[in-house]
Fold this protein.
Amino acid sequence: MKRSVLSSAALLVIVVIVAPLLGSSHIELGRAFAGRSPDHEIFFYARLPRVILALLGGAALSVTGVLFQCMLRDPLAEPYTLGVSSGASVGAVIAICLGWRATGLASLVGAALVLLIVLGMAVEGRRLSSFTLLLTGVTMNSMAFAVILFLHNLASFSQSFAISRWLMGGLDAVEYSTLAGLAVVVVAASALVMAYAPHWNLLAVGDDWAASRGVSTVRLTALGYIAGSVLTGLVTSLTGPIGFVGLIVPHALRLKLGADHRALLPCAFLLGGAFLVACDTLSRTVIAPTEIPVGVLTALCGGPFFLWLLKSRRRSLWL
Amino acid sequence: MTSFIARQLGFAYGLHDARFEFPRNGLITITGPNGAGKSTLLGILAGLRSPYHGSCTFGGKEVRHWPKREFARKVAFLPQSVRMEFPFTVEEVVLMGRTPYASGWFQTAEDRSAAEEAMTTTDTLTFRGRDFRTLSGGEAQRVILASALTQRPEALLLDEPATHLDLRHQLSLYRLLVELAKSLLVVAVTHDLNLALRFSDRVMVLEDGRVAADGLPAEVLNPALIARVFEVQATVHARWLTYEA
């Protein structure tokens, strides 16, 4: 377990160092740190913030994927299953249609609203049903999709283009102050989730299984839902929905590491981050200077890799 | 010495006015037709069904007031079956029983020796490394039992533990329960009157959420009661029963 966490960390460090050096124009690390133009600007203002955003986004989505699959005991669950990212998308689409510039803020509000609605629906007295969470989340997704279709239908040509681009998801360089805020929340929420790793193991087996071994299942489920939704909502408000990461990274890791969340969660954080940084680097470089939407690449790179993994580990197939 | 004491115990649906006292050891089976309230009663004893009406104490303290973690060190519950979605190994499943004793992220030497001991008792050591989902019904049931034993409980509650087992495994499971019942309280829900008759120290029969009979197996499981509660004609042959609809 310690070895897999350490090698994941090493891989992440390598990816984060190499990624900002690659891109449409060649730069050198020495020149960038010496403050020479344009290497300095390209490294510190164009590429590094984007790498950090990809790192935090990939980490947050993968941790949430592990968490939601465990809580809902559903292999098809992913960060977007419980509706928060749809809320974020509706917020962003409304902002685009109304010509507001604060798309990120609007999507954050949308995500928060959905979080509260789903939680309000799923809490019954002092109980919290993960089944109701799932159904409410899926319903919110459908409703949000309907709203987006409706607004898209009304939108002008340029708005329509902006909406499509937003819904594809993508990583752009953002301010360091934004990144710092994101980093604090992502690290804190992930650490909180990881602190309960042994209890997630029990919840992954069943509610009664966990409760009869002294775990407060309602509190744990609420914590998981809120932490996962905050992670997903925050990341989505900055990147739009980036598919596949939160579904495939957890599965790939389970095939390699087994189901123990003490190994799974830290590795999902580290390798999820590394995976999205790598995909984003490819999206910037493959047909540079044109970019491929990163969501397209996560599916195109992750899919075949996952199929190969599935094929080679047939016996531990758990779908 | 008693363990569980129930007075006017009831639950929203399925259980009314149950009263009984359980000793600190021995094998008690609970039986009754479908929907009689067996699983509800077991769930209340396990601290999983609340709020209940009336009173149900363990060790002199109301079950719903026990701190969950502390309670889990005294009372272990075995569900009828476990539907596992994730690739946990047998040993990981067994070690989950140590959660009420855990103080951190990592297992201690004591956790591992408790797991070792429980796997020896249940004869599951040989497949400790296997994926739980690849086990047969009998193997899985023994692993779940091992997990409960690592809780080092004073009371073991089992919901139809023999349902998915073949005849040989049914008998060996109940023999193991009899062995365990020498030092702790074992309460098992079962539909098999012959297992109850042969192995238990005491049988409790539930009917429509009420205790219809409670006492020594040979006395409780008589043709008249079986005809009334289960609506079948039973014949007693020394230590076993046959029934006809």
